[in-house]
Design a protein that fits this description.
The chain is of the alpha+beta class and about 140 residues long. The chain is built from 4 helices and 5 strands, in the order E-H-H-E-E-E-H-E-H. Strands 1-2-3-4-5 form a 5-stranded mixed β-sheet. The radius of gyration is 15 Å and the shape is globular. Bound molecules: coenzyme A. The site of coenzyme A (COA) has 18 residues, from strand 4, helix 3 and helix 4.
Length: about 140
C-alpha cells in the first residue's frame, strides 16, 4: 500500500540516498542544509511515498512566481527507489504534487528533465506532460 505524506526530519538519511540515486551525492551537512532551506519556505512542498512501511520515493514541488509566465508549480525533484520502480509510486507522488498545485489554484505544473532521461520523459508523457521547449542550462561559478 502506497501512502504519501509530508517529509519529516527522520526521513533525512533515506532521502539523501534517494538523491544519490538521482545522481546527486551529497554529504550529510550539505543535504541537511538543503532540506532545511526547502522546508523553511511555505512556497515549497516536500513529500515522501511510503510503501510497506519504508520511504520509497520523494517529490519536491514549489511555487514559481514569474513575470513571463503565470504562477505555476514546478516539480524540482522526483525519484523512486531503484528496487521499487514500476509499482506506481512515481505516479502517486506526481498526483500528490499536482493536488498540492491544484489546491493553491495554479493552472499548470512544469518540470525540467535532463535530455538524457528518456525513460523519465516517457513516464511524464504518460501522465499528460507535454514537451514545451528545450533550453540550455548556463551557470557562472561565484
Ligand atoms: C521516473 C520515476 C520517478 C518513475 O517512478 P516509478 O515509480 O518507477 O513509476 P510508476 O511505477 O508510477 O510508473 C507509472 C507508469 O509509467 C511507466 N513507466 C515507469 N517507468 C518507466 C520507464 N522507465 N520507461 C517507460 N515507462 C515507464 C510505467 O509503465 C507505468 O505504467 P503502468 O502502471 O501502466 O505500467 C522513476 O523511474 C525514477 O526514480 N527514475 C530515476 C530518476 C528519474 O529519472 N527521475 C526523474 C528526473 S526528471
Amino acid at each position: 500500500v502506497i501512502s504519501i505524506r509530508d517529509f519529516a526530519m527522520g526521513d533525512i538519511y533515506r532521502a539523501r540516498n534517494l538523491l544519490a540515486q538521482l545522481g546527486y551525492v551529497l554529504d550529510d551537512r550539505e543535504f541537511t542544509n538543503r532540506v532545511s532551506a526547502v522546508r523553511s519556505s511555505k512556497a515549497h512542498c516536500l513529500l515522501v511515498a511510503e510503501n510497506k512501511g519504508t520511504v520509497a520515493g520523494l517529490v519536491h514541488v514549489f511555487e514559481r512566481p514569474a513575470l513571463d509566465k503565470p504562477l505555476a508549480a514546478v516539480v524540482q525533484a522526483l525519484v523512486v527507489d531503484i528496487d521499487q520502480r514500476g509499482a506506481g509510486i512515481g505516479e502517486a507522488l506526481m498526483h500528490a504534487a499536482e493536488e498540492w498545485a491544484r489546491k493553491r489554484g495554479y493552472g499548470s505544473v512544469a518540470l525540467y528533465s535532463g535530455v538524457t532521461r528518456s525513460d523519465a520523459h516517457k513516464f511524464y508523457a504518460r501522465l499528460g506532460y507535454e514537451l514545451l521547449a528545450t533550453s540550455n542550462l548556463m551557470v557562472k561559478r561565484l
